[in-house]
Amino acid sequence: MLFKYKSIDAEGVNKEGEIDAPNKDTAISGLQRRGLVVISIKEEGENKSILQFSFFERVKSKDVVILSRQIATLFDAQVSALKAFTMLATNTENKLLGRKLTQVGDDLQSGVSISEALSHHPDVFSDFYINMVKVGEETGKLNQTFLHLADYLDRQYALTSKTRNALIYPAFVIVTFFVVMTLMFTVVIPKLASIILDSGQEIPFFTKIVIGVSNLFVNYGFFLLIFAVLIGIWIWRLSVTPRGREYMDNIRLSTPAIGNLYKKLYLSRITDNLNTMLSSGVPIVRSIDITAQVVGSLVYKKLLIEVADGVKSGLALSAVFAKRPEEIPGIFVQMVQVGEETGSLGNILKTLTDFYKREVDDAVDTLVGLIEPVMIVVLGLGVGLLLVSVLMPIYNMAGSIS
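The chain above was modelled as a monomer; its predicted structure follows.
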């Protein structure tokens, strides 16, 4: 939540601003740590629409990529951290990100580290991001760290966007199919059915089924719509619970073609995360723990937690991965084992990252090339069979009259 405050600093100067915190007490504590005496504080959203903050305002991955490159450039130019974040806060186009950068600048001015200041905004900066910055602070290579972060986020953004965009067209075709079929059953079929029924001729069995479904849509369409909405709400509520998310993950990963695509996407994300963190000096167990939080799948999150526990107990990384052959392919385990034996795990992980990125690209291209003609054929067959089922009796009726 965003709070507006009025305060006095140690020199008696009045200060006003905004602070992002989960509740009012946390906000007050944060201001006091900066050496400020709080005069008044209230939630900014009290007089504004909830939708304005929770839906329309958000920080996209692309914004964080650009921000990381800008920070690296400013650090290369020997600009201080406080001045860098202050400059970026006033020049960023995303207003929400600008407010958060202003708060980061305030925290830096109060004496906290950059990683700690960023950790106050977990909705923008992930555990992975914060730990990378912390390593950069410890090694004195913050400019390189932010460049690595920008490159990493750029790769992940491009990969995720391509996968998401590949599924937009099939979803559009499926929605179009249901809209066309609904219009056929509610508008076209009833008119043709009245002609067939008035003829008094023997109606084929398949035609009876089509007419029955059409009557169901016409007479009970409103209730069917309500039922569909309730099912959609139930699925949405299920998907936001940990158990439901895991169930949806399992369905996604077990779906032919799409499941293979998502497996390669998650494996690419795992190898890229581990490579980036290990090459920056983050310990392997900590790297695995952080990767588990940002992998984007509860199935692979649980797997990585098991891997971290196994490594803690003294097992080799490849040996723990080998216990989960359904999620981790043999080639992955063998490559990691080679990296452990030769002491070049970082290079092996980079190789695996490039390999799975190409695999995801190929899988997306194949999926799009396969789904497009299949969907068109299915749509054509569905509408064609529907028309044939009602037009054939009319054709027979016309033949009998002549």
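The longest helix spans residues 142-199.
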